[in-house]
Amino acid sequence: MDTKNAESLVRKCDIVLDVIDPESIIPIIALHRAGRKHNKYIIQPNDLGWGASVHIYSNKSKTIEEMLELDPHTPIEKIDPVIATSNYFKVGLEIMPEYAKAVLNDLLTGKIDHYPQPISAAYILSALSVMAAKRIALDLPVKVVPSFASFDPFDILDPDN
Fold first, then answer.
1. 94 lies in which domain range?
2. Is residue 48 part of a domain?
3. What is the pTM of this model?
4. How many domains does the chain have?
5. Is residue 141 part of a domain?
């Protein structure tokens, strides 16, 4: 998927699952723009430490550009990928559990090469994504951005939470 074929791919879908690596932010924005143009739901799963979150975009939700504090009228080729990626990770930091923020900071400062993805996060984001798609397919209400669904087994087991 790239900025040139986003629209043709989205047009063929009923529900779009955005699993593009966050470092490829420009194709993500292109995918979301195509989804909005064709009135498609976009499910965006994110692993967060031991758990995960799911953001659902629709024509009634905020746009990804609004979430990233970008101008939605800027042509794709004029979007600064450094600023957009930085803003993407800022949004992640706002919702990320405290114990995972240090790991993301290590990634952003170059101390580690990639964000570790525990298998528990993969299972949870898969389950959240499937349930989101099921609710959308059954025409049941879903939380849309800026609201989101998340689950973290590390934090949920903490007696102080």
1. 6-156
2. yes
3. 0.89
4. 1
5. yes
pLDDT (tens digit, 9 = 90+) per residue, 43-93? Answer: 999 988 888 999 999 999 999 999 999 999 999 999 999 999 989 988 888
* 111 DSSP 8-state letter: S
Residues 76-88 as b or e (16 or more Cβ within 10 Å = b): eeebeeeebbebb
- Nearest alpha-carbon partner for 30 in 13, 10, 50, 44: 10
Q: CA nearest 124: which of 59, 46, 71, 69?
A: 46
Sign of CA dihedral 126, 13, 64, 80: positive
Spatial distance between the Cα atoms of 26 and 18, rounded to a whole number of angstroms: 13
Give the C-alpha distances (Å, rounded to integers) separating 26 from 30, 48, 72, 147, 158: 6, 22, 12, 23, 37
Which long-range CB contacts under 8 A does 153-156 form with residues at least 24 apart?
153/50, 153/51, 153/120, 153/124, 154/49, 154/50, 154/51, 154/97, 154/99, 155/51, 155/97, 156/51
